[in-house]
Amino acid sequence: MLLTEIIFQTSPWYIGFCLLLGAAYAFFLYQPKPVWSKLLNTGLAILRGALVSIIAFLLLNPLLRSIQTLVDKPKVVIAIDNSESMANDGPKTLSALATLREALADEGLEVAVQTLNSENYQDELPKLKFDRTTTNLSDLLNNAKTNYEGRNLTDVVLLTDGISNQGLAPTYGTYPFRIHSIGVGDTLPKRDVSIKAVSANKIAYLGNQFPIQADIVASGFQGQTATVSLRQNGSTISTQRIAFGQKEDFKQVTFQTSSTQKGVQHYTLDVEPLKGEFTTRNNHRDVYIDIIDGKEKVLMLALATHPDIKAIRTILEKNLNYEVDVKIFGVNPAAETFPEKKYDLIILHQLPDLFNIGGDIVQRYLQRDNTPVFFILGSQSNTSKVSQLNSAVTVVSNPGQIDKVSGRFNPNFKLLNLDADKLSILEKMPPLTVPFGEYRLMPGSETILFQNVGNLRTNKPLLILNTGGARKSAVLAGEGIWQWRLEEYALTDKQEAVDELLQKVIQLISVKEDKRKFRVYPLANEYNVGDKVTFETEVYNDIYEKIYGQSIRLEITDEKGKVQPYTYTNGEGNSRFELSGLRQGVHQFKATTSLNNKIESVTGQFIVRDLALESLTNTADYGMLRALAQQSGGQFVKANQIEQLKDYLLKNKAVDRLDSTEDLSELIQNKWLFFLLLFLATLEWGTRKYQGSY
């Protein structure tokens, strides 16, 4: 329904003035004796008077107010939990739900069906499949809330067993509609044995022992025993026997194992099925562990024994991926030999020194390759040689001249994600001993910490790094870092700020750069069954600019050796490729393309997990469904009471809602007025011309 009215911004009496103005104009124009008939003269006068009156009226700038009222019928959403836990009882209710939908639609209500995996289910209800591997009832209800925001959604009929294994509990939400829950499933605990949880390291090292722990829950099997097995590639590695002494029992089983194969290894934990179990699907769990061949090797060369060495070693060994060798000249004879072992990072503590102790050994380490180097300066450092060997900073100083400084974080440093508030504690730390002199940053270097001399805040750098050169370098211009760790612990009972700072700097300069011109990699290392696996593609030219248009061949190989090939084109703005339908397990991938008439390839792996969340709980939660219905003003019924719910909804049918929208605009903006004025002027002018007058 549309209502319109004209609103005047001036007194309505001005309308009479407009009419009078039009009449006067027409009278004086057509008052002389006409050359045509009196009737025609009167008609032309009326046309001219109307034209002038309308123009004068529009100059008053009247407004046009339009009010449109729409009828919004009540809407009902039938929300169905189509997860695997509903597979037994859910399909039995679909015919009754179809009848409910038809009855509500016949009464003039708009009815939609929504499931866990789609906004609106358009097919016939009896064809609905209960195959979702997870249940998020909160998302299901919030989707209905979002999809019908601002509309007259009055009721949601929720069919579920109340088992929600993802997201928040639906009772924590607030909803602007009534929720009528239909409970299905059995609320009585089942006789069952299940693996509730598995604990294992994501990463282990080749040849090392590592634990795999399983939490096993049994219900209704007191006095019985079961066998728990750890398997890999179909072969049993180890077994343990457990006995259940109570009706509701919990057992924890730990296996110690190792691997001689690199890469992600797939292990399985299985509990022997017992007679009378409700389901055996939860007797099996998969475990994936990434077996790494070796650690990052770090060499710390020191001029002499020093508390800093112990402190830095402790910081490094917090990361299990680091293997640290410490060599001290004059103390460790191995320090004076040059081993064949290669390192990923070299830390030089007060080396090179003023007396060139071990200078030839240091030089040989640095000449072998472009291994990143972290220089820690002190009172014995030869700043001239350090300046020649690092790419971060040049220090000009006189031998033996030192200064005592504390550290101040540079807030403009953004290369690492560091907490400026946490690092403000460094200004309270005991001073470090640094060479006194002039510090000049080299091109591409960045300052992490500045030097504070007492209360004087200087712009001299204390901690500097350069990651852009052939050799990555970092320089800490002072000794005494061990005092910082002790003081931080005294102030905060923790050792976080100093340790995190050095850990991140060391990780940044020791990480290996990827210089490949062709890269294909999954956006995540792990996916769940049913998820889309997304690959990112990057192709570069000789100066490392991204290029596009290459044809990519991607091969996915599962654990059984089955190869699935795919082909796609790397396009600008569309460099990702998605695939779905992969089964659980470790999947290897190989991508190839032609670049400069040369075949480039890249390989890798990812994991597809079957979390089996739907099998972990098999007892329906009617208590939650009752609470959800009660707090929203709805009804709770069981699956065999859907007819009663239909009668309730029809009896308590919501009324239509009237939505009105008001629009206020200037009358002159209506295009039809222009054409009306053009018509009046054209008709008058055409008639006068036809009669031989202008």
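The above is record 1. Record 2 follows with the same two-line structure.
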Amino acid sequence: MDALARMLEGYLPEEQIDQVRRAAAFAKNVHDGQRRQSGEPYVYHPLAVARILADMRLDHTTLIAAILHDVIEDTGISREQLSNEFGADVAALVDGVSKIAKIEGRTRAEMQAESFRKLLLAMTQDLRVILVKLADRLHNMRTLGVTSTEKRRRVARETLEIYAPIAQRLGIYFIRTELEDLAFANLYPRRYAVMVQAVKAQVGDTRKLIREVEQKLSSTLREEGIGATVVGREKNIYGVYQKMRRKKLKLLKVTDLLGFRIIVSKVDDCYRALGVAHHVYKPVPGEFEDYIANQKSNGYQSLHTSCVGPAGHKIEIQIRTRDMHHVAESGIAAHWQYKLGERDSQSAPQVRAREWVSGLLDEFGGSSAMDFVDNVKVDLFPDEVYVFTPRGEIRRLPRGATPVDFAYAVHSELGDHCVAARLDGQLEPLNTHLRNGQTVEVITSKHARPNAAWLNFVKTAKARSAVRGYLRTQREDEAVRLGRRLLEIALRELSVPSSVLKDEDRLQPVLAAHQMSDVEELYAAIGVGERLAALVARHFLPEGEAVGASGSAAPLAIEGTEGLVLSYARCCHPLPGDEIRGHVSTGRGIVVHRLDCKHAKGRPQDWVPLAWSERVQGDFLSEVRMKTIRKRGMLAMVTAEIAGAESSIENVQMPDAAGGDAVEMRFIITVRSRVHLARVLRRLRRVDGVERVVRA
């Protein structure tokens, strides 16, 4: 505590330091007898967390909350007791950091997700909650070595997936980089050790090289009349590792392992210093970013450039003012200005951070805790692109974002109805990755709807959530329609009129037996295979009446437009014209098989009689197997015939193309019916060199 007090003397009044001392004494008392896995007294941990925050020059309320952050969770002290002792603000901060109590029947992952949602909810009230949590996680990561291997890996993975990206999002650079390197070392210890040695071997004596660049830049800036501080450093190991993975590079190809910061007094000097740096060291073309004019969402501002330094080493140079540097290192924490206990809570980065957290909770707060955490992970993108609307407004999106992400960022209606986009006037597909500076114009159609395929390329959590929400609603509607048809068929088989579905006296006991609130919920459960229509139908028989039979009822007619609750088996690829039957599969609805499929066997009660409707429409997949002679251009001739028969190829395989006089080809193609498939097969048999063509 004395060491912490000496740190606080530089910026806090004596009476506030005394309050921090009182909190430390309180924590020591309530944590008495508790020890960490390392064997040291437990109170050492909260004091270490407070020292991390004291380095960031945070206020005494945050420091007291840091010292007491485990009191509610690990001792018998309640929030009310804490509020009476240290005030409502401290109690709220400690409660926000505390995990929720164990709930019976919940898994560890679900409990962690619920605690994380609670943390973000507390952040909307006071952003200092996340500062305490990040400092807590940082000290835990520093002391993770005494825990089991399984726990080290679990905590390290969670840190990389959630807490380091949050520190990045909030602009707290020093916490983010240390969390990343510590997590990397615990998750992949061998890779980390190899990376450390390899970086040292490549850069050599970094101290000498860094000193040389610092002196050269400092003297040249001084000659130009620019007062500046130049500081060099090695890049963090995890950042180098991620760059190698992202760009598929070997370490020898990663040349910018050293970074330098030029810190000046005013914005004008930033651009003058950039000119000096480019005069001293040759700039690398295409590697300049102006984050002063286009600041990041977390408030970060700097000029970034890459140059060729001494001995051909590529160096990264960041140029910023002192205020920008303060924000870059501490992010939102840099904007807590305390004067006599008052704080400026309206600084731009704080407002943006609060808007981000509030937006997440508004968008995904109603989803399950696990889905909420997944959506937050999607939203935590460190890299961004800046694009323009047709009116010239700037939109900030994560790197890798597509026109669909842009459309949903503008308005949900625009996203729901987009069909294509013009990027700088050129028509492009919706999965195109956006680039900095592009003007994006979204093309819509009132009949267009979100597509499940969009989930393969959208990047923003908002777009992903909107598409999933639409598909979920569409699936429910389709399930209700299909379930009603299946139940009506099952009732006819039992000679029960379908009018019983409107008879409340007959309906209510059935709903109660299946624990359903209304008939639509029952239809949906049948449609997705959670209930069997035949068993539900028997509940409508008058009590004591045997299962009647008026002969088999008409099979369910398949139109090809049933959507997500009806699928076609890949083992036999049924087509209109085939004799078919359906298997009721929980969660998938009905899976359609050909009657001669080897999998279309089993208990009769698990199967549904099906037939093709006269109004059947759409394209269906079919597998075609061929044997041809080996000659140049054979594949091209075959594919041309398939295209000429108004069919498209979804997949092609040539399993024994390695040698021999014959080649086997397997195609998955789209056709409209058995008749259409027969036409495709006839055309293929006429190709010179084709020996055999069959439908699989």
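Confidence is low (pLDDT under 50) at residues 335-346, 546-553.
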